[in-house]
Amino acid sequence: MTNQQLYLAIGIPAFLNAAMFGLLIAYMNSRFDAVNSRFETISHGFDAIDRRFDAIDRHFTDIRDLWRS
Question: Buried b vs exposed e over 30-50: b needs ≥16 C-beta within 10 Å?
């Protein structure tokens, strides 16, 4: 077996493993981005609920002020 054959026998599988690992990392990153965007959507929904509760709190404050006067 010559040196060139050894380089090919070791180099090609190492290169393919590195390429597959890179693709796996890219796939996982895209999946995490998708999950992150879903959590941001849910967070915006909770922000809307918080605004509704703030409006209710203001209403109760207005009623309390009305009762005091």
Answer: eeeeeeeeeeeeeeeeeeeee
